[in-house]
């Protein structure tokens, strides 16, 4: 199995898009993944829809709901990742899932499926460092990169988190659940500086990155960006359009994405 | 932060610091005589504790077995045991310098308790409540507003308690710097299950003392209903090391062999909900299933992690009672004792009747009457239209 | 059987014997330590007495004058002081060998209390209630039925409390041999006003003891609302010989200069109602006029005869408070103290605020919070639609 | 002023009808009074309508309501009695009124009006012996006969009541408020026997006398009958008919009454 690092394209700044497995349809999820790679994504965060996504804002909650309506599960999501590989996706795939689906699937099945479908990493938003010992161990046994999050409220915990960070370190751009935000606070810059200084892996800012100006502004303070809600919103708005003319819609979406991440592309 | 393997802190990183601060503040407070004095002052002078221990003489003789005693949490200010915890947490919020509180509510009982203590202690209060529940529980919504609280509709999921809790946690994640999250039951991430137990154990402590005075010993069995499980934990805690049989009663809804129940311990499997590892009702993929019970206070898909532990360690026996059985138990108590219990509490009563009937008359059963049924009169009217005439 | 010139027994000849038997039974009971022990046992173990005495700290500081204390009759079982009297009369009925009770009710609070004690003590219970009130108070009607009582619609007159009382008396006249008539306030023929006072004086007795413990003396002023006047008499009775200013508060409805009020002592004239000579609201021909108040518990055209006496003898001052003032007082208490009072009690609060504001901060005002406001939430919702958002 | 006794026709058995002043109209009340005298009434009980007639059953309550709708008062009732006299009514008129209207009118006005309108007696259903001291005194000052009631529950009180009885003694035929009843109990006979033995004035049975059989059955136990609800009910049922053909309706009513009291008329 190829590892996360081996798959990672050598970009200065990472673009890490988040999409929800099964949203708007499983087939489109695959096409979106390929499109994102083409548009310059460095890593793909592939979300497992969950009934109770308490770390997510309304946009991702709706995506979760749409995906669940297509009977998407953690298993089908990993199978979708496998299908992406078969269709040529090269960049690392990070499975984004709440802890409960992992628990229910069971460790053995989970890691078997991850391996089988060439999932590279795992991000569990409701599993803080203290609760993650066993799964980290298993991840490293199976060469799965375990992605950690760090928040402005992490404070004394930051050392521990940065010390154990793998792949990239997901920096929460503000207090809060995922969502689209307008402004960033002064404290954010200090926080990002501090994380970057301490981290041995690239730092990526997430939560609220919705405009190219955000990326432009924060670029000096980090190594990459996670774009979730803003992307899901674009997809959501095109839900009907996809049914009318899929190709054209995908093309338009790609242009929107390129516009959003233009400050990153400019450097490549 | 665990009860055996259960509990823990399954929360976004952002909440880890607030939870640590809370835990530390709680530990200090529980050791501070001034804090405890304040807490007991308000329990007594504001909420009217100690609540009565009522010997249900007529009921006992109708059931024809053990003597049945009722711990009357329905006599608390706002009508249920919820206020014990709300007072404790409000005092703690003040101690931690937080001026704003968040709470989740299903039927509205904890929401009313939270709004109440917010008014009493000068805190700003936001109550998250499922949009569905807001419609079904218009009176409690109005009470909360009257008390000065803001009621925020939760529009996600099935728009009920589970979703209101998700929304409250989301809001807390974003505003944890100046907001105190007041959870209403022994659920959520550590230290909530522990904290809420400590603020509810007054139920059991008083009961123990009152029972000693009245019967000169301990009850043979204690029965309490379990949704999240705070009244049960509060009642059981001081008796855990005693030779008393403890029974928790879950809502079997339309029957545990149907999909419509809330019998988490009886039918659930281990998983994580609202920050805690416990038993819950979920599908094979780990998606949480909306539970069902006629009682709005028992239809929670999870259960306090300590209950999960008490079940697995066999210290407490958990049974379940259907809607029908609970309603029948409610009717019997109303007619025999002039007490209309909350439908939640009626679940405990149904089991207590069954147990008492099997016991000799020199034994005793203590039931936690967690709240009054006034709030349920609309539900009962709809349900029993035409049958009470 | 008189308080000064007031009171008496203005009843059909048929009732004279039952009243004499009642009076004799009552006198014996009140001297019998077993009876009193039973009465206090049930007050404590069933209704949850003593009720709390709450110092309203935030409220007092908002009002900015005397310290305001609240006697929390709302914390009684069934939510108001009515149960004190109902327990007393139920025990007396049993003692007199009566297995059936009759009660009248307006908003349903006394009806619920009567139905409650009937269930508790194994009595058959008929509650007379105006047809209008039955419609307006559907929840309380349902509660009574749930408790096993029969609710009999009074279809005469304006179909409200006055008429329900007439119907209850008529029924009693016909069935006095085996029925006990349980009047809910200090009204009716002797010995009712006296008996109900004796069963309500526990309010004042507890208050006196609690106040002594908390403040080391007596309150400077005591305020209570007055409809029939039982909570006020119960509160005042133990203080009548003390140097405490006593204030009764009537319902001024839309204003005492309008025809829509229930300010019997302020605007009424002497006359006979329901067997008693007292003040009442009537026209020049002696026809009783239907009173008005937003509070269903205060819109009675008469008043307990002892109040008439206390007014004429200048021992108690009687003021009146409009619907608007009462509602404002209710809102203030809800927001400052987290207590939603009955609209009845809110009348007393409105006056207490006015009095406290004029007093120095080392003085004290004690308010009888006669009941909880849950029963009034529908009324408040209708009234304030849109203003609480 | 002529007294009650002077007006009383010398019948063996008294027929004492009750009508409500102002029901169905004041004018008809006068005509009904004259008709009743013609039909054999010994005494007329003239009711003052009251807002809260707690000693009366539903029939008389309704009559009260109808009368109040005609603005009937205690004053207008006594004036109506005066008008009856002017139109030739000879038999004693007993004013039946609850105590409160008397209180409000005031003693002085009351007795002045009673005298002026040749009212002979007074019956106050909610003024038991113990409360009636002052009004009895005033009655005797003004030569107004004060009618007392005695009930099966009077027991020890019966001696006092019979001792002070004037005019006739109104015996309540059963527990209860006025109304139409089907049967009489054994205790009733014993009660009536006892009252008759003790009383110095004629005894009249009231409350529930609605059929000639009642009169036939009870005749041996008393000196007369009060007929209230049954009569009011007849009048009530003819309310519309009165408007169509008053004379005919009065005639029919008279026949009904004569039928009802036939066991009494048979003896005259």
From TrEMBL, chains A, D:
CDD domains assigned: Tryptophan_synthase_alpha
EC code: 4.2.1.20
InterPro entries assigned to the protein according to its UniProt record, in alphabetical order: Aldolase_TIM, RibuloseP-bd_barrel, Trp_synthase_alpha_AS, Trp_synthase_suA
Key word Amino-acid biosynthesis present: yes
Record-annotated active site: 45, 56
Pathway: Amino-acid biosynthesis; L-tryptophan biosynthesis; L-tryptophan from chorismate: step 5/5
Coiled coil location: none
Alphabetized UniProt keyword annotations: Amino-acid biosynthesis, Aromatic amino acid biosynthesis, Lyase, Tryptophan biosynthesis
GO cellular component, one term: cytosol
Transmembrane feature ranges: none
Catalytic activity: (1S,2R)-1-C-(indol-3-yl)glycerol 3-phosphate + L-serine = D-glyceraldehyde 3-phosphate + L-tryptophan + H2O
A molecular function GO annotation: tryptophan synthase activity
Family: Belongs to the TrpA family.
Subunit annotation: Tetramer of two alpha and two beta chains.
UniProt function note: The alpha subunit is responsible for the aldol cleavage of indoleglycerol phosphate to indole and glyceraldehyde 3-phosphate.
Name of the featured protein: Tryptophan synthase alpha chain
Highest classification ranks of the organism: Bacteria, Bacillati, Bacillota, Bacilli, Bacillales
Gene, per the UniProt record: trpA
């Amino acid at each position: 199995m190829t590892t996360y690092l081996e798959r990672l394209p050598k970009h200065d700044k990472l673009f890490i898009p988040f999409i929800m497995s099964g949203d708007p349809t499983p087939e489109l999820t695959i096409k979106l993944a390929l499109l994102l790679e083409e548009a310059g994504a460095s890593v793909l965060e592939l979300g497992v829809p969950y009934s109770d996504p308490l770390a997510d804002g309304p946009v991702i909650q709706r995506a979760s709901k749409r995906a669940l309506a297509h009977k998407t599960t953690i298993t089908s999501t990993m199978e979708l990742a496998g299908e992406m590989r078969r269709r040529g996706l090269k960049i690392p795939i990070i499975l984004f899932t709440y802890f409960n689906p992992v628990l229910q699937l069971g460790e053995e099945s989970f890691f078997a499926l991850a391996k089988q479908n060439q999932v590279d990493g795992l991000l569990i938003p409701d599993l803080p460092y203290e609760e993650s010992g066993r799964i980290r161990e298993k991840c490293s046994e199976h060469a799965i990169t375990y992605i950690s999050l760090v928040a402005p409220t992490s404070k004394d915990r930051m050392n521990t988190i940065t010390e154990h960070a793998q792949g990239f370190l997901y920096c929460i751009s503000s207090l809060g659940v995922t969502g689209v935000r307008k402004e960033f606070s002064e404290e954010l810059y200090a926080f990002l500086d501090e994380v970057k200084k301490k981290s041995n892996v690239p730092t990526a800012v997430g939560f609220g990155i919705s405009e190219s100006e955000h990326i432009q502004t924060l670029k000096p303070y980090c190594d990459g960006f996670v774009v979730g809600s803003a992307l899901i919103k674009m997809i959501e708005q095109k839900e009907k359009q996809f049914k009318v003319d899929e190709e054209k819609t995908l093309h338009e979406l790609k242009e929107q994405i390129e516009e959003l991440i233009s400050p990153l592309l400019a450097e490549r | 932060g665990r009860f055996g393997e259960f509990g823990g802190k399954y929360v976004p990183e952002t909440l880890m610091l607030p939870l640590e601060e809370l835990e530390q503040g709680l530990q200090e407070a529980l050791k501070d005589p001034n804090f405890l004095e304040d807490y007991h002052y308000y329990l007594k002078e504001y909420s009217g504790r100690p609540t009565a221990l009522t010997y249900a003489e007529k009921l006992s003789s109708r059931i024809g077995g053990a003597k049945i005693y009722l711990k009357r949490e329905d006599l608390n200010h706002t009508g249920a045991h919820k206020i014990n915890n709300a007072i404790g947490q409000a005092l703690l919020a003040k101690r931690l310098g937080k001026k704003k509180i968040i709470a989740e509510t299903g039927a509205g009982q904890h929401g009313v308790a939270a709004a109440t203590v917010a008014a009493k202690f000068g805190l700003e209060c936001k109550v998250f409540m499922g949009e569905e529940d807001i419609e079904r529980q218009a009176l409690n919504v109005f009470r909360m507003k009257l008390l000065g609280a803001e009621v925020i509709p939760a529009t996600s999921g099935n728009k009920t308690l589970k979703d209101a809790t998700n929304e409250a946690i989301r809001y807390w994640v974003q505003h944890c710097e100046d907001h105190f999250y007041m959870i209403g039951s022994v659920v959520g991430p550590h230290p909530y299950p522990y904290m809420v137990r400590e603020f509810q154990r007054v139920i059991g402590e008083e009961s123990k003392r009152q029972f000693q005075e009245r019967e000169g010993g301990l009850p043979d069995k204690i029965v309490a209903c379990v949704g999240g499980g705070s009244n049960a934990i509060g009642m059981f805690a001081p008796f855990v090391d005693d030779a008393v049989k403890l029974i928790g009663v879950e809502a079997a809804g339309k029957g545990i062999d149907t999909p419509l129940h809330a019998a988490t311990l009886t039918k659930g499997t281990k998983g994580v909900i609202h920050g805690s590892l416990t038993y819950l009702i979920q599908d094979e993929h780990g998606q949480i299933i909306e539970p069902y019970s006629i009682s709005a206070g028992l239809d929670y898909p999870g259960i306090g992690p300590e209950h999960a532990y008490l079940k697995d360690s066999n210290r407490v026996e958990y049974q379940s009672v259907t809607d029908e059985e609970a309603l029948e138990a409610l009717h019997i108590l109303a007619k025999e004792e002039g007490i209309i219990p909350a439908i939640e509490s009626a679940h405990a009563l149904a089991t207590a009747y069954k147990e008492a009937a099997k016991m000799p008359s020199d034994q005793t059963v203590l039931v936690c009457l967690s709240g009054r049924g006034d709030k349920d009169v609309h539900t009962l009217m709809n349900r029993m239209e035409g049958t009470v005439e």
